[in-house]
Amino acid sequence: MTSSRDKILYILLTYPGSTINDLAEAVGINGISIRHHLTVMEAEDLVTATEERHGVGRPRLTYTLTEKGVEEFPTRYYKLTKRLINALKEKLSPEEITDLFKVIGADITRDYQSKLKNGTIQQNIALLQKVLTEEGFVVNIEEDEEAYALSLLSCPYNRVGLNHPEICAIDYEIVSSFFPNSTRIESCILNGDNRCIYHIPLE
Known about the structure:
The protein has about 200 residues and is an alpha+beta fold. About 50% of the residues lie in helices and about 20% in strands. The chain is built from 10 helices and 6 strands, in the order αααββαααααββααββ. The chain has helices at about 5-15, 20-25, 30-45, 65-70, 75-90, 95-110, 115-120, 120-135, 160, 170-180; strands at about 45-50, 60-65, 140-145, 145-155, 185, 195-200. The protein has a 4-stranded antiparallel sheet with strand order 3-4-6-5, with helices on one face. Strands 1-2 form a two-stranded antiparallel sheet. Strand 5 (about 185) and strand 6 form a beta hairpin. Helix 2 (about 20-25) crosses helix 3 and helix 6 (about 95-110) packs across helix 10 (about 170-180). It is elongated and about 60 Å long.
């Protein structure tokens, strides 16, 4: 049987802007339970609340799915992405495909370039970690006397990359945009390693 949580998500997908009372009536449980589910889902960034005025009195809260919440539902993004890349490969050379992914990686970091010019290496590493995390990577950073080891413990492109490893040019371009003269990749998930590791010298 579908859980109350799943029913709430589905209702918000179908009727964005629903109130707690709307959800309680649709799901068939009391408002206190609905509020509990919504609090948990807000903490997980699945739903967002907005105050809405409706005449005299306190504004009421309405709830809508976030982008992450929408992605809880089955999509065909993966199949569409594979079809797009296959279509591109029929028109472009391998070098042109790689260059295209590099352009995507560079575009992701373009808004941060002004901050990089004035940042220390520590600040730029922290900013790089923020950018990669926002793009869906799980990042771990270790430091020794000579270099940072930036590990990508998971890759949001992994399923696509298994058939199209050229997509790795995106994260390589992101990292090298931050450290253009020193980035070196030491291992890659798509090569059978358990993580992607970038070596970034302290100097």
